[in-house]
Each structure stands twice: as structure tokens, then as C-alpha cells.
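Because showing beats explaining, we think one record worth quoting, sequence and C-alpha cells together, and here it is:
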Amino acid sequence: MELDTIDTKAAHAFDGYLVRKDLVRAFSKQYPVPTYVVEFLLGRYCASIDEKEIQEGLEIVERQLTSRTVKAGEEELFKARAREQGSIKMIDIISARLDAKTDSYLATLPSLRLKDVRIDAETVKQNERMLTGGFYAEIELSYDPSIAQESGGRPFGVQSLRAIQLSRHDVLEILAKGREHFSAQEWKHFLIRSIGLEPEKLSPRAQDMVLLRIVPFVERNYNMVELGPRGTGKSHLFQQVSPYAHLISGGKTTVATMFVNNATGQRGLVCLYDVVCFDEISGVSFDQKDGVNIMKGYMESGEFSRGKESIRADGSIVLVGNFDVDVEHQQRIGHLFGPLPPEMRNDTAFMDRIHSYLPGWDIPKMNRDLFTDRFGLVSDFISECLSQLRSQSRASSLQGRVLFGGSLSGRDVTGATKTISGLLKLLYPDPEIQVTDEDLEWAVRLALEIRRRVKEQQKRIGSAEFRNTHFSYTMGMDGVEKFVATPELQNENYIGADPLEPGQVWSISPGGMEEYPGLYRVETNVGPGSGVKILNRPTPQVFQESVRCAEQNLYANADSLVGDREPRSHEFTVQLRSFDAATSGRQVGVGVLIALCSALLKKSIKGGLVVVGGINLGGSVEPVYNAVSIAELAVEKGATTLLIPITARKQLYELSDDMATKIDIQFYSGAKDALLKSLVE
């Protein structure tokens, strides 16, 4: 393999801490151990770019993995070897429990199906994580035949163990010194290679998302949600790459395991691991009703109370899960927190504690091409560096350089700041290095986007306190205010500045009857025939009524609306497209009437315009009672002009100054007035 620029720089900067990632995959598929276990051994024997040294190291690694890992069906063989030889060395995940009857600890070795292995209390005390799920270790397992002769004897015992993780205090110094040899872009690519992916095969957007996945490892008490399609490697990082992360698969979890066991005082996962990840979050639940409330309190303050004691921890919480539909459809049928368990999905207080919502749909499905064959940092080295970076902060980099807009609440600022700090720690492991404006703005934009995504879902649920989601920032005191949107809002449901084709109108339904305001596009075609045909099946009753009223008003007032054209001699086909959770099409009659007239006149509607209002059979415009919410929704959807009944004028005095400057509000008194103000001149 020919070394590229990044390989060459890495070989010079991190000699002894590199491993070829294709070798890792080759071994990890053959042996029943996680990636970081394989890399631990490869880093010990193959941390070189010299092909001869690599081959010699590979032979040693293969021998150790062959002789020390237990494949299916070899359990009794290993036990027999322990009996014959007195002891064996093996690699396995080890966990422990307290046996109250004998007042002693017993270890479990799942690969040998042993649940009663003797282990001394001092070893357990030094490695508390084996009491909460366990960890991989190099274990020397002994066999005592004299104990085997006793009734209920436990002949197997842990003679010694070595946790599979690096323990050096100077790793950050090595990382910071090595970073000096790379440009910012090269360093991003090198980090992505270090977790096993090839950046050249990923879009710049996907690269950013992969880096965001690492932020919980470097930032204390960081709460992140990632939802998206299946097969994008959401749990890979937490299960395979770092021993400082713990993965909880879907199912019931206990408060005692997660936080603290009141009976024993044993600390839970958030105290013992840097990151606790809930996989398949839709199926996760707590054994106690107050489990989610305890977790909410912990996510807010990093503390939890059980009994009289208040306990502090700094483990980050990550929730990952899958969409059963694409993101556009998910937004149409509900909101982006929909896959969460019922006790979480509609709780705005829970959502508000989420620092970032990572769009998993922007990361491609994992296939062979996306994995790298090049050099990257050994997993135990990089995971140790990430763990030590948690004690630092880069929030000071923002002071005097970044000013957040007025739409951000205190929690928004906290969430964005933590994300920015995490990204800058990844990019600049040396805190003394000055962060460039370009890199700082990159981190700020990403942080605001993934926090705004949380706020958008809170707003969708209907909470008025979260209505202002127009996140912005200013670089420097004299900079220009820049707004940050979430890309999924700027797709086809985003009102553009270009005029629509004749017969198409943007309209907002005021909602009502337990339905929130929603954006619609009325699309109308005209041809020979007569009458109005609705294409929506099934047709919502209230939309059918809106169309009927619009049709009758067109016939009754044809002279003033469309001049000498005869609407009764044309057939209109009407389709209502919804872009929010609202689907009924309530009170969009004025929009339908304008669409019918536009199609008949063959004149386009002005770009950026959204129409609001219902009309009855007599031609009177129906009043709107939530004009402020409608105006805010119009701004959110990208409208530049809001056309609304004159009766709503007084309500709009309550619209904030900030919002009032973002949209041109025009009033109409009747259907003809609305039509004239809608058409392109």
C-alpha cells in the first residue's frame, strides 16, 4: 500500500501509535471480540509502517487471539486446559457480583459459561466497572483441584487480570504535538480514519456528522440524540471503538444499574463510564415509574439523589434509534422525536435537556467502500485521549468572538456552547493553540443547527414558549448577523422566493379542533369540461367544504374576479399537499379561490407569498384567531409576504419586533382584494 500525505504525516507524528485499519477488520471478523480489543493487541505488536515489522506482529497477534479467545463449541476445551495446566490465559469480558451467602465476589466469564469464578475483593475494588456490565480484559484463569473436591466448591479463580485499555498520563501531550503536523482538514480526515472510516468516501456533510458523534466522548454531561435509517453505524462507535463507552441495548433497564444501587451503594453506569448509549431507544424503559424523571434531573445538572445522598457524575447520555419512514414523512406525520418511548417523545422538558439532535439521515449506510484501509490511531490511544480531554473546556474561545442571537434561551446557549467546545477539543487538542475564525464558525454553525433541531420539535408539539427558533450568531462585535437553519426544513416544504406556476398557492391553515396551524400548497389545473374535482383520497371533509365555498364564490363573482372568462365551462382539478402534521385543510378557502382564478387567468402568484383565510358561501372572509402563531409559522417556512384578513390586524400588534421585521404583512378585505394582491403584476 502506498502512503498518502496523511499517512506520511501520521507515521512521522505518531510512530508507535498507528495501526492499519484493514488489518483490524480482518481480525475482528474472525474472533469474537470488539474492534478495540483487536486494536489493543495490534497496537502492541504492529504499531509500525514497516511491512516486515507488521507481518511479524501479525503472527504474534494471531497466535494470541487464536489461543486466548474462545470460539463457539470450545468452552470445555479451555476448561480442560485450565485443569491440566493449572492456569490459562484468555481474553474475555469479565463481570462480577457480590454473593451475600459467602460474603465474597464471584466473576462471570460468558465465553466459558462460568458464573461462579472466584475473584478477590481487592481486584474488584480496583476495577468497579465489572460490577456494572463488565469490560474486556486479559485474564489468567486458575484451576484448583482441591477446591473441586469440596461440596459446592468453586475450582476456577481469577489469578490476575489486565483491563484492555491504555493507561498513560502523557497521551494528550503526544496527541497535541502530533496535531501540529496537520492542517485542520487533514486532521479531521485523520480522526475519521482513526475510527475506521474513509473520509474520501464521505461527503463533507457526512464527515461533519461523524465528528459530531465523537463529541460525547470529549464533553462531560453531554446529552445527544441520533435518529435515522438503519445500518448507518449509529451504535458502532459506542460498542466497538472505546472501552470508556457502555451500550445498553433495547429493553428494560434499572435505576440501580444506571445511577446507584441503594442497597449496596454501588455507583451506576453514568459514574463509571464516559458515555452511556441507549441503543434501539424506542424499546428502552426503566423498571421504575420515576426512572425518566431521575434521568431528566441528571441530564440537567449532572446530579441525582437516591435516598439522602446527592451524587454527581459526568457520564454523557446518548440516545440512538431508527426511523421507520424517511425524514420528510416523519415530519408530516408528527415530529422527529417520534421514535422515542412514549414517556419521552412528547415531553418538552425532557427534550429541552438534549444538547444536540444529530441528523442520522445525513450519514450513508455502512458498506465495504466506506471503511478505510489506511493508517489511523490505535483505538485505545485515541479513546484515552478523548477521555482525558473531558477535563478541559474550550468555551473561552467564544468570548468576544461570537455573539449569539436573541432567539437562544439559556439552555440553547448551554447546549450550543458544549457542542462547540467538544468540536474544538477534537480539532485543537492543545488548548494553547489559537482557534482560527474559519474553524470557530464551522463549529458554531454545526452546534446551532443540531440544537435548533431540538427546538423545532418542541415547537411542533405546540408549546408557545418555544416558538422563536430563528437561531443566529454574529462573528465579532461588528460582524453581520447570520441565521442557521436545519436543512430538513428547507426542502420542498420551504416557501421560495420564485413565483409559483399558475394555479399554485401557498396557504396556512389556522388549525383548530385539536389541530395545529400547518402549511399547505394548493395545486390546481384547468381543462375542458365543467365542475371542480378534488384529487385527495380520502378527501378531508373540511377541505371539501373549503373547495365548495371557493367554487361557488368563483361562479357568483366571475366578472369581478376573472373578467370575461367563463369558469362554468372549465373543469378544475384541485390537490391539497400538506407539509406539517396538520392534514385537514381547514379554512383555506381564500387560497383555493386564488388558485382557481390563477389557473383560469394563467397568471402566477408572487414568490414568497402565503395566503391565510377561509371564505363562506356568501363571500364573507372568516376571522382568524391565532394570527401571531400563523405569522411566526410563515417566517419559519421562508415566506416574505403574509396575506391575511384585515380583521386580524389588532392581533398582530402582539407580534414581536424581531418577527415583524422579517415579513411583510399585507391585509385584504375580500376575495377580489386578496386576488389582486396575490398575482404577479
Observations:
- The radius of gyration is 31 Å.
